[in-house]
């Protein structure tokens, strides 16, 4: 008899023995939430991560090239946009500024 067959026999043995008569079913794993990737919190997390990574990366590299400078400026712009949206939302929630109606 193979080891895997013996193992299956041992596992099934007590359940078939008629001890309790109830089968033990494992609870189903909870469904994962559907994540919306194109949202502002994801953009804020991405821009903060890229900004910190660029700061640490440019600190590690002695001579910066023009490409690194352009990428850093793009990432800094993303960081500025995300921070301005975040602060604007906080100010609207606190009632300091009022949201404007959307134009059509």
Which helices and strands appear, and what pairs or packs with what?
Layout: H1 3-16, H2 40-60, H3 66-93
What is the compact description of this entry?
The chain has helices at 3-16, 40-60, 66-93. By secondary structure, the chain is mainly alpha-helical.
Account of the protein in words:
61% of the residues lie in helices and 0% in strands. The chain is mostly helical. Helix 2 (40-60) packs antiparallel against helix 3. The model has no long low-confidence stretch (mean pLDDT 79).
List keywords for this structure.
single chain; 104 residues; mainly alpha; 3 helices; flat
How confident is the prediction overall: mean pLDDT?
Answer: 79
Strand content is: under 5%
- SSE order, one letter for each helix or strand: HHH
**End-to-end Cα distance:** 76 Å
Indicate the multimeric state: single chain
User: What are the segments in which pLDDT stays under 50 over at least 5 consecutive residues?
Assistant: none
Structural Rg: 28 Å
State the helix count.
3
Shape: flat
